Amino acid sequence: MSTSIMEKKVLNIVQAARVMFGRHGFTKTTMSDIANQAGVTRQTVYNAFGSKDDILRVVIREIGKQTLEQLKTEWAEHGTIEQKLAAFQRIGPLSWFTEVRNAPDWADILEGLNMSAASELAEIEKEWIALLNGMLNKELQTDAGGPAAVQDVSEFFYTASKNAKYGVDDPEDMKKRLATILEATMALLKSRGYQQA
After folding, report:
1. pLDDT digits (tens, 9 = 90+) for 31-44
2. Measuring CA to CA, which residue among 90, 85, 95, 94 is closest to residue 187?
3. Are residues 167 and 125 in the same domain?
4. CB 93 within 8 A of CB 125
């Protein structure tokens, strides 16, 4: 089998796994379920991936890559820091919250993520924070005109936005909480004397 055909099958398997994990949860989804959804044999799935955990890790990496690219595209279209931070919240935490909450076995999905893909999640988190930090460093300057040192603000904004989901059951409540975090972050930047360059 040629490399490009196998790559297409692997991508198809990853997409099918994402659908099945969303539909049935991580624990209840079988390799056969993934194979059927992908339209391939179970052996093809096993040839591409050693285990369901391996598939989940690739699914997480793909979601991370897609959302990072989507955010970069959105940032190119928005001018203000506030718009860019709001885009991060919409594309990242709000979309993740909605996707997980729309899954019937969302608690199982979260458990699967934390058990099987913890290192992937940690790596994606580093990439998100670095992207936020890079954007803020590029866009901000101090009142004196120097560069802003905002690593702690990037980490605060990311962590607060990601964790806004706790104790929230409704996307509208999540939006309100994220808006408060955005407002607090903008006030923090202003209180430190940072302004858009």
Report:
1. 999 999 999 999 99
2. 85
3. yes
4. no
Report which of 127, 136, 126 is spatially closest to residue 84, judged by C-alpha positions: 136
Report whether pLDDT(12) > 60: yes
Confidence of residue 109 (pLDDT cuts 50, 70, 90): low
For 3, the domain range is: 1-50
Distance between CA 57 and CA 54 in Å, rounded? 5
**pLDDT category of residue 148 using cuts at 50, 70 and 90:** low
* Closest C-alpha among 71, 73, 58, 70 to residue 11: 58
Please report, for the domain that includes residue 130, its CATH number. Answer: 1.10.357.10
The Cβ of residue 195 has, within 10 Å, a number of other Cβ atoms equal to 15
Cβ pair 73, 136 in contact under 8 A: no
Distances from the Cα of 86 to the Cαs of 24, 97, 182, in angstroms? 31, 15, 7
Asked if residue 67 lies in contact with residue 94, where contact means CB atoms within 8 angstroms, the answer is no
CA 88/CA 45 separation, integer angstroms: 34
Angle at 69 between CA 65 and CA 73, to 5 degrees: 170
Characterize 104-121 residue by residue with b for buried, 16 or more Cβ atoms within 10 angstroms of its Cβ, and e for exposed.
Answer: ebeebbeebbeebbeebb
Which tokens belong to 37? 């959804």
Tell me, yes or no, whether 3 and 40 share the same domain. Answer: yes
d(CA 91, CA 89): 6
The total of structural domains in the chain comes to: 2
